[in-house]
Amino acid sequence: MYRRDFLKGVSALSVGVGALTFLKSMPALAARNDTLVVVTGTTINSLDIHRSGTNRPSYQVAVNCYDRLLTFGHKQLEDGSFSYDYDNLQPELAESWDVSEDGRTLTFKLRDNARFWDGKPVTAHDVKWSFDRAVTLGGFPTAQMAAGSLEEPEQFEAVDDKTFRIRLPHSSKLTLPDLTTPVAIVINSEVAKAHATDQDPWATEYLHRNPAGSGAFKVERWDSGQQLVYSRNDDWACGPVAKIQRVIIREIPSQSTRRALIERGDVHFSQNIPAKDARELEAAGKVKVVSTPIENCLHVLCTNLNFEPFQDKKVRQAIAYAVPYEAIFNNAAYGRGVSMWGGDSSKPESIAWPQPFPYSQDLEKARALMAESSHADGFSVPLSFDLGQADWAEPTALLIQEALGKIGIKVSLNKVPGANWRTVALVEKSLPLHLENFGGWLNTPDYYFYWAYVKGNLFNSSNYDNKEIAGLVDETLYMAQDDPKYAPNIRRMIEIAIDDVPRIPLYQPSLNVAMQQNTTGYEYWYHRQLDVRPLTLKQD
Amino acid sequence: MVRVPKRLRLVGYRLLQAIPVLIGIVVVSFLLTRALPGDPAVYFAGPAASEESIEQIRVSMGLDRSLPVQFFAYVGDLLRGELGQSISTGQPVLTELTTRLPASLELTGFALLFSIAVAMPLGILAATRPNSWIDHLCRFVVTAGVSLPTFFTGLALVYLFYFLLGWSPAPMGRLDILYLSPPHVTGFYVIDALIDGDFETARAALAQLILPAVTLGLFTLAPIARMTRAAMLQVLEGDFIRTARAAGLSGHKVLYTYALRNAILPVITTLGMVFSFALGANVLVEKVFAWPGIGSYAVEALVVSDYAAVQGFVLSMALLFVILNLLIDVTYTLVDPRLGMED
């Protein structure tokens, strides 16, 4: 018996013990189709995205319970599913905004009717306090704000109650998109200040447990390690009020259990399912599966230039010709995602990113390149991957190990536990050959190149150092996309990346979700969190 | 009577003995967590952290201080009853332990009840009829129970009783979505709901418990059944049993009054060991059934080098072991009068 049938049955009993105890249970959860149940494998560890130690799955609270100044519109993709639209900035808390001639002063007019949950109007002072907090607390929020050139409290000014101004050291195309990220939320500063202490001037302890926002949903209940329950804010002013009254996010660590729950119809939505399940569930046809290629994200094989043989470009190219791309795409990605091999030319024509590199498996060519290289006799190297990513990384590594063996490179596998991964791979950058999966939130190629191809930056785990790319990134990062120099610069970056291949793209992964047939309105977002605001349940 | 103060003395003596053990555990758990690979500051600095932001996190976590300074700060906190804040779950370790330990205890307790109910009769029957079909059945159950990994049994049971048959409620933790947790008294949902007089919730909590408890129980019944069988076999060969039989006592009385009572001591020892072992080792069962227990908490904490949580877990488990051993020792003196007469 499915839960919904059960609910109907119970509500049909107007009297009786069953119905009475039901009232004692979740109030108002009964038969109406307005409660959505979501399962996820990860745990939410804070309701405050600015706090240090807040993990990724917790960002969804910022998305659903808080408002930002700006948001993105949405677009329909080729397969009929919906995605946010990077090229379509929309107002959220701001009613309108104005960019000065030199692009260095941004002025936002706030909505008149926007109120926090406690009824207090949202003012520019709240925006200022929240932004000050994000750039001061350090850690991830500060780094993400800095990506939009928002670094100092002095840059933010509350001109009057409804006018907020940002001053930039230079104009940047990344600032406005950065204001849509889950980090740039607006917090009820009066509630927060009332709970601030001398040791904790930004009320991190209070907001950690008690969100104070103006967003579409409030947190009704948080049982750490078990569930988070959102309830709708009926007075939300920054968008259409949600159709669903309540959303229950249940944490179910075992993927097999999550799959059983969605297949049996006891839950409505399963967030971030493995590619293998996505394929099988789709084939079974009972539930809807949506796979969206993750923008600005690549699964790559990185050759670390600190490892002597990889300093030879011929060795790197030989590897790029030896990788069994198609087998990886079929056996690790289960055909979900976008292929990134077999491109037409080594001179890119478009500035689309990611785009296929002109490599494909050609062992003859790979052997020839190895023979020409300074390591014609081959060498041994460990191939490392993150155990937390084992679902795709392990089959990928095995296939690469086998293929590289054929061109004289003896590969051993090195599995690194999740917590250790960031330290050895990204901070120390000490892994000779490894699998990496960086994706940039802000969807421009130069943003990807900034993080992944510039010496010293976090995701450049190859220790790749190229003066020209660094110069191009420097010149392009803040440049407007319609600048005449923008496209040639990007094309040149991609061309160097293709020729030098310090990072060998394997494929562009996709974000897979499964939902019941009656659940509609799902939208893909770059932050990969579930935005519950547009979701609806069809009455059946 | 002299026996009562003697027993008290035993308890006091045992508690005193536990002190050096606990001190040792505090030191070792502190050092071991620091020896874990991985840098928590890097991990918790988040996806796009820069050098400075990692450094800021390190300072805010107090990890920039030297080891002895960190250790004394930790001991100072412990003395004030503070176990620190778990970074991976964002909750105070003490809160986590007090909510998760009852969940694990409830699960393990029910699993053990199931185990005993199945394993002891099985063991006794197998011992009284060696090499009969029941002995073979016992051997089969024991071997299967040990050799099947718990996550496999768990998933198989979920597949059969939830997915195919639909008899069992959705494996979504301690309570179905429809119910609210009962007011906190003991932390055991079934008992708390009964105290509250809410039979519906108690029934629901019990229904959630059955599959995970059986899964864990299947795993733990092996040592209990084997130990019961072995101990019974040994006792049944004893002279006093032959004498009792020769004296014409009924088979029932011989078996349960004389044989079982003498065979029960090693079984109790095994029970204690199995209980404490199962409490920490039911991680996989907890994962499959989304059970918010202490095992999965500890493993998650270990994976992300969450020092405070790991230390708190080790310490509380150590305390539990001490208490459990004490309880077993005291139970011995109740079961076996010889022990009470000594010293």
UniProtKB/TrEMBL annotation, chain A:
Top-level taxonomic group:
Bacteria
Keyword Transport included in the entry's annotation? yes
Q: Which Pfam families match?
A: SBP_bac_5 (PF00496)
**Residue ranges annotated for the Solute-binding protein family domain, each copy included:** 89-457
Claim: Transport is one of the keywords in the record: yes
SUPFAM superfamilies, alphabetically?
Periplasmic binding protein-like II
Predominant location category: other
Question: What range does the record give for the signal peptide?
Answer: 1-30
Compartment(s):
Cell envelope
Keywords, alphabetical: Signal, Transport
User: Which InterPro entries does the UniProt record give?
Assistant: Peptide/Ni-bd (IPR030678), SBP_5 (IPR039424), SBP_5_dom (IPR000914), TAT_signal (IPR006311)
Q: Which family does it belong to?
A: Belongs to the bacterial solute-binding protein 5 family.
Official protein name in the record = Dipeptide-binding ABC transporter substrate-binding protein
From the broadest rank down, the organism's phylogenetic lineage runs: Bacteria, Pseudomonadati, Pseudomonadota, Gammaproteobacteria, Oceanospirillales
Automatic annotation (TrEMBL), chain B:
Give the residue spans that cross the bilayer: 12-32, 107-128, 140-165, 205-225, 263-285, 313-335
Gene3D superfamilies, alphabetized: MetI-like (1.10.3720.10)
Record domain ABC transmembrane type-1: where:
101-332
Stored Pfam families: BPD_transp_1, BPD_transp_1_N
**InterPro entries assigned to the protein according to its UniProt record, in alphabetical order:** BPD_transp_1_N, MetI-like, MetI-like_sf
Spell out the subcellular localization from the entry: Cell membrane
Q: Sorted alphabetically, which SUPFAM superfamilies does this protein's record hold?
A: MetI-like
**Does this UniProt record's set of keywords contain ATP-binding?**
no
Alphabetized, the UniProt keywords read: Cell membrane, Membrane, Transmembrane, Transmembrane helix, Transport
Entry-linked CDD domains: TM_PBP2
Superkingdom, taxonomy of origin: Bacteria
**Would you identify the family this protein belongs to, as annotated?**
Belongs to the binding-protein-dependent transport system permease family. OppBC subfamily.
Record-given protein name: Dipetide transport system permease
